[in-house]
Design brief:
This protein is α+β, with helices and mostly antiparallel strands. The protein has twelve helices and 37 strands.
Amino acid sequence: MKRFFSCLILVFALNINAQDYNETLHAIRSAEANSALRQIMNAQNANTGNYDVKYHRLELNIDPSVATISGDVTTYFEAKEAMTEITFDLADNMIVSQVLQRGSNLSYTQNSDDELIITLPTTQAQGVLDSLTVSYAGNPVSSGFGSFEQTTHGNDNDPIIWTLSEPYGAKGWWPCKQDLIDKIEDIDVYITTPVLNPLNKPYVAVSNGLEQSQVVTGSEKTTHFRHGHPIPAYLIAVAVTNYEVYSHEVANNGNPFDIVNYVYPENLASAQASTGVTVDIMNLFTNLFEEYPFADEKYGHAQFGWGGGMEHTTISFMGSFNRGLIAHELAHQWFGNKITCGSWKDIWLNEGFATYLSGLVIEGLDGAPSFKSWRQQTVNNITSQPHGSVYLTDQDTTSVNRIFSSRLSYNKGAMVLHMLRKKLGDTDFYQGLQNYLDSPDLAYDYAKTEDFIDVMEATTGEDLDEFFNDWVYNQGYPTYAVNWNQDESQLQLMVSQTQSHASVSFFEAEVPIRILGTFGESLDLVLNNTINNEQFFETVNFTVQEVLIDPDYHLISKNNTVSLSSSDFNFDDDIILYPSPTTSVINLIKPEHIEVETIKVYNSLGQLVLQHHWSAQIHLNTLASGLLFVQIQTKDKTITKRVVKI
């Protein structure tokens, strides 16, 4: 059975762009945190742990003008151990009238713990697949975020029923197993409704997957949906009202599928003007990552009576239709529905990814300046406090506000992905994400942070432990100070770093630098900064006027400073190098307490021409005449000396 851990997506309906992004993210985070609070307060039922759910057939009777539901739910289940009874989660106000197995009535009881306990006729052995059907009815009680809501919409007060189950709300309206690590492999949903509402407007039913049929029998209509991918109970949803229905086709490289929109008639015009962008976002995500995970069925939006949204698999329930909400919900179909975070500690695998994908929509649809503005605001939010890691501790998981920290789980997680992209390059970065989504061990399942790291390392062949230790597992951010001077065409830069939190002794990072000349020249460099007080030599064929640190906000950092040195850097005098000039050999003298790791020799063009371990004598016979820079690397710092070879 597929593994799963829920990270519910509930978002307020606000536009996301580079200007109001942080306000929007705060609203998204607040809604998700509120819903998660109810998840944390409800434990999974240990009494449902002796079987795996394989299949559900829900045959539901719903009249949107009446706040009740009735129906038959057939469940196929496989015994994980020898079992004589089976327990389903079902609210105690829902009344079971019958349980059948192959035409025979089974005995059952319901209790105040929201359990339906069914006695099996014989012991079901481990590994054996069987099925039964529960007939039930009742008036579902709302879980606080919907669960099962009967209300109205529009000036005519047209009736509507919709569900929003969050992980522990499904039991409020149907007998199920709310164990989040037990995905149902496929489902059929049959919704029988009146053909017309009390105002003689046609009812339209909505659920997960692909609509199979509509069958009218007298004054009733049965709509059949089928979903053929693993899904947890809380992501199964239904809605019925007098929807207007229209579609946008996604070409999908010759295998088209529909984005089906179910909207209130009174909002049809505005919805039609807003939802077309879903195709553009779908195409963007498909091109960057992979085909939409449920392309053999549909994607869709169904309007409902709540002020936000819920990313039910294949059909997001929407309080409004705007690009920000559309992008966020759609992103979670990949990162949340197909692959879900494996624990609250790994919440960034859902929220950091969804946040970054929202940024990629800004990059793809609005252009580079807007994406830069998005990054700037994101970095400013991350660095507004000096502490905090992307990955959560055990103690962190007891606080819903920490789990859903917009600064850390969302924004810092997103910028870590952006820095990883800059580190690896677009080709390897996107290939790694494609491999992650396509991994046989993770697809339609769950992942933890170490799973993601493993995939990225396998894709790129790089050791990423240092990167993730600094930026995901530990806390804070760096502050950079760059000291520079120019000697003719040779630009010397010394990069120093301090850290905002003691958990990281040094952030190894590619530091973007922009060199500006007196006549408008510009040169972009990336300095691979691996140690403190590291010195770099660059050939710059113009007079430097200004040096900028990370002007385009590709790096999480704050309070960076640049200073111009009026003379050569004050290199450490503890190590003596002589003679200079020299014809072939230089000698080095160091105190015993200084341990030298490597010695590197650069020419005046900044090219590495010689490297080896500590030696008191270095031979320069093979090197061309001219100015050389000898870089001496100790455990604590880099010391640079000049020598002229003649």
